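for the writeup, i need someone to sanity check this before i put it in the appendix. the sequnce is what the collaborator sent (i think, or maybe the updated version? ugh). structure was predicted straight from it, no edits. if anything looks off just tell me and ill rerun, i have time this weekend
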Amino acid sequence: MAESPRKYQQCFTVILLTVAFLSLCTVAHDVGTNLEDHNIQDNYNYTSTTGRAGCVEAERPANPVLARAICHPYSASAQKPDEKEVKPDVCRSILGDELLFATPAEQEWRENLFVTYTIRLRGGAGQIPRMPASPIGLLTKFCWRLIMHMYCRFLLPKCDMTSSRPRAQPICREACREFRNHCQREWTHVQRKYKAVSWRVQRLASGVEGSSSLMWCKNLPRRKGPDIPECYYPEMLKDRKEGPPSITDTCFYGDGQSYRGNVSVTRSGYTCQSWTSQCPHRHHRIPDNFPELNNTGNACRNPGGQAPHGPWCYTTNRKQRWEYCSVEKCEPREENNGNFNSF
């Protein structure tokens, strides 16, 4: 009979341990459920480690050592073959102080392609009488400027630092095609007038040895929005297009560059990231670079017209970099029938 209290005590201890175990399982389940729900809510991720709300970036910044090894400031100096004098930097005014996806040595030999301009005669290389010393004398001012912009950006691409690994900024396929539409006829005329004209930078950009094409467009990425890396479309091509339509705030015309409404939600329901914020997505489309973004907050826009199908925004979902917004397209305006009142 003396063992009975001891048995009761053992049973009571087992029951207490069982209750404690079940309680821990319940707490663990609740914590797991809360974490899962928190992961689903990717719009913003907050942390209490610093005592204040914080945003988790979509991609970690590039390793500084890797970035310094890959990206370099412009430092090329073009030197004409068989001459000791160093000519002025060809691409300096176009590239400025941007970091380029090319080492100093690569920059030097690529820029020398611009001044390697010869006329091949049957007996060898030589100079045809009255032949301009450079292609600038053979083309219109607009095409010469456009060629320089396109070739400088093609050979010395900008270093895109918006992702965790630096990347080279490619030329947009649409820019390449417009470039050829505007200037290919002029260049073809030059080659017909001065047979065997040879310009090394053009031959490299054409993608085919001996081709008369100004640039090979087929493998270039399309201009479809602020992807990583975002492709290059020169401002001077935008200036050649028709002026933007009237400012609107309820719908948009064309590609939506003139939209100034307050919609700040994407088609999938994501809240827009503020244009002045670099989290969760890093980008260069800030008010300093695009004045139309001043005092915009996180409202949908199409700064620079990079997205062809309307206003968009970077989202606060770190898994979705950007998306078009839920803004309706305006109804086409009625054409003026040309009927005037007679006096």
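The first strand starts at residue 72 and ends at 73. Residues 24-52, 119-129, 337-343 have pLDDT under 50 and may be disordered.
thx in advance!!
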